[in-house]
Amino acid sequence: MIIIHAMAVSMRVSGSDLRLLQVFEAVVRGGGYSGAEAELNIGQSTISNHMTALEERIGFTLCQRGRGGFRLTERGQAVHEASRRLNQALGDFAAEIAALKGELKGELRVAILDSVASDPSNRMTEVVAAFGRIAPDVRLVLVQERPQDMQPKVAEGLYHCGIGSHRSRVEGIDYRTLYEESHGLYCGSAHPFFARPDGELTDEVLAQAPYVHRGYWRDEDGMRRIRWRIEATVQQIEPELLLIRSGRYIGFLPHHAVEGDVAAGRMRRIRPDDVGYVCLFELYTPRARRGSDVLAAFLASIETVWP
Question: Alpha-carbon dihedral of residues 221, 226, 229, 231, nearest 10 degrees?
């Protein structure tokens, strides 16, 4: 951070610098020069010249490239993060200028969680449709984020808002409950528990089974009495679903994500009467930052769908 601050003091960003940073962003996204070639529609030799010019302008090496592949240096990673913030600030600036002229333009960045599209309680499709009717010229960027990362990034302004679920709270965020998502304990058809009656699957029996844990939950709400035998850890629901389908693990999943598997006989819910929990899905908005007209329009769209 000290490096970037020192660079900012001695370097006045110009239009040509912004172009060089755009090339740098494309190189990072593409994992190297060849990956950025198609996006930028320029040759690798030109990309290399741009990168050299940017490194000379900044004063240090941004990335290592060679037989070992493409890799950002530590300073390069810091510049990439600073460049992302700069691009987002420029987008926000353009949106504010358009708002002063009575126009809704620019970019809106919204974070969501994985595996929500199949949930009938998640009405984001209706929100997007409503927002499109009142702000058709706004570029909507919808990004899947990890639960533990979403709130800090909303507070920092990387996202204008987010819709997620997490038990912890972050200072500087306003919360509004939108809906609930119910989770149950599941196993696959190849698991030894699949054919056993619920009456035999006591807490003690469940505690002996290999269990897949979502790393962002410190504990499964309401199930602290069971000392799970954690043998796999995931950060998203999709990989957890694959592991449970294998028949090797048991674990908690949202009901909507496994409805088709249960109907087809590929999975079953264990002890539905007393094993499970509910997640609150909330709208996250930054408290300290002044909301733009574009964000206000999006929040109004949410209000029409989730009054």
Answer: -10
What's the first-to-final CA gap in the chain, in angstroms?
42
Q: What is the 3-state secondary structure (H, E, C) of 191-205?
A: CCCCCCCHHHCCHHH
167 and 294 in one domain?
Answer: yes
96 is a domain residue: no
If asked whether residues 136 and 159 sit together in one domain, one would say yes
Three-state DSSP state, 214: strand
- Whole-angstrom CA distances from 28 to 33, 42, 194 are 9, 16, 46
Least Cα distance to 92 among 160, 42, 32 occurs for 160
In this structure, the dihedral spanned by the alpha carbons of residues 33, 35, 40 and 46, taken in order and rounded to 10 degrees, is 20
Per DSSP, helices labelled H in the chain are: 2-10, 15-30, 33-40, 44-58, 74-100, 124-134, 147-156, 203-207, 237-245, 255-263, 293-305
Q: Name the stretches of the chain with pLDDT < 70.
A: 1-11, 67-68, 88, 92, 94-103, 218-224, 289-291
Q: What's the token pair of residue 168? A: 């912890």
- pTM score, two decimals? 0.69
